[in-house]
Amino acid sequence: MTLGRSFPAVPVTQKFPFDIPLWLDQGFFFLGIFLLFLLIFMRRRRFLLNLFFVWAGLMVLMDVNRLQPWYYQFMLMIWVAGFASKQKEGQSSILATLRFIIIATYIWSGINKLNIHFGETNFPWIMDSIDLFSFLGEYSFIGYGLGVFEILLGISFLMPRFWHISVPAGILFHLLIFLFLGPLGHNWNPVIWPWNFGMIFLLWIIFPTRFVVVPDVADQTSSVRRFMPFYAILLLLGLLPILSFFNLWDNPLSMTMYSGLNTEAMMYYQEEEKGCFPTLENTEITKRGTKEYLSLDDWAMEEMRVPFYSKKNIYKKLGRQLCTCITDKENAGITMLSPAGRWDKNTIVEELNCLELVKFKEEFPKGFKFTE
Question: Is the four-CA dihedral 317, 319, 323, 329 of positive or negative sign?
Fold first, then answer.
């Protein structure tokens, strides 16, 4: 399944029937943007909102890689906002639930940065993007402090009396992220650049330092108890990320961005099989003997401008698709690299050749090959 691009789409199930050309895929994307505009300007929103979530669900069903943390967060926020009510109690419940989404995002993002892989690998890499700050990468405790800062920032938003401090701190935090990862820094993962500015806007609107809606915590606590969507959000963003500690919940849905906890993978193959893969300008291909190793994460980032959905089963599905073009299946496959633990520096290496990958139940189209 290609969706008109060289990097394969990985549907939730291979029985999902869509294999559409690029122009139709792009048209489907702009349909979602059009529905969002209609939701803003039309009065009768319930039908449009349901239609929008059908669209959002189909997008993920066609390619699970679209289920990025920012997509997940904003879809949940749009869903909650769709319960808009003219009653004060309803407004209070919706606002409290939207605030909880932001709070949970910060807290889990901070918790997931409290690991040796972030402190000693990812944090130095981030700091290295700006010469003026590169020396900070030598001090891993600053990286751990960054995780603690995010946790405290999230907690501070539970207490309105601190908003006049936490809102400017949050805005500065997102501006620094843009500085280090944006055009002046690593110029990496451009999809999160607007996400950071979107978060700045949300902080300014949802946590006003001059209150638009007086944040009576006792009143909101009382009203939110009768607001059923809050319990769904509490489950999805508050509780289920705990399961990621035991590999029972997906990392991307647990806000593990840049934490160093995500699995990475490479596709390896004999040099004569390289025609099964596109020519990539910014993706390094490592040669070891007669084999070439192609980073699937770098390939995804170069073509789609987003990181790959980090989950072993998804990598295996992708590897299975790529293997359909390979002739020498015994000497080709995927290598997955996973952290051994949050405080264990070692890396777990799992290698599956194409013969092992095709043993899985789902079947893929024969002769899969990238399309220009």
Answer: negative
Residues sharing a CB contact under 8 Å with residue 61, sequence separation 6 or more, in sequence order: 11, 12, 13, 16, 18
In the structure, what pLDDT confidence band is assigned to residue 190 with cuts at 50, 70 and 90? very high
Taking the C-alpha atoms of residue 237 and residue 255, their distance in angstroms, rounded to an integer, is: 9
Angle (CA) 152 154 158, round 5°: 105
CA–CA gap between residue 119 and residue 137 (Å, rounded): 8
Q: What's the Cα-to-Cα distance from 173 to each of 72, 158, 170, 178, 197, rounded to whole Å?
A: 21, 18, 5, 9, 11
Residue extents of the structural domains in the chain:
98-254, 264-357
The upper half-sphere exposure of residue 279, i.e. CA atoms within 13 Å in the direction of its Cβ, equals 0
Whole-number percent of the chain with pLDDT over 90? 67
Torsion of CA 85, 204, 173, 260, to 10 degrees: 10
Q: Is the pLDDT of residue 361 over 60?
A: no
Q: Classify each residue of 113-139 as buried b or exposed e, where b means 16 or more C-beta atoms within 10 Å of its C-beta.
A: bbbbbbbebbbbebbbbeeebeebbee
pLDDT digits (tens, 9 = 90+) for 302-314: 988 899 999 999 9
Dist. CA 58–CA 120, nearest whole Å: 39
Query: How many residues are given for the chain?
Result: 372
Instruction: Report the relative pairing of strands 344-353 and 333-341 from DSSP bridges.
Output: antiparallel
Distance linking the first and last C-alpha atoms of the chain: 14
CA 19 to chain centre: 24
> Which residue do the tokens 């669209």 mark?
55
How far, in whole angstroms, is CA 311 from its chain's centroid?
A: 11
Q: 158 — phi, psi (to 5°)?
A: -80, -15
Instruction: Return the pLDDT at 87.
Output: 67
Burial of 154 (0-12, 13-18, 19+ CB in 10 A): buried
Contact yes or no for 7/304 (Cβ under 8 A) = yes
* Residue 46 main-chain phi, psi, to 5 deg: -60, -50
* Alpha helix positions (H), the chain: 22-41, 46-62, 69-81, 88-112, 116-117, 123-127, 140-156, 163-181, 192-206, 217-224, 228-233, 296-304, 312-323, 354-357
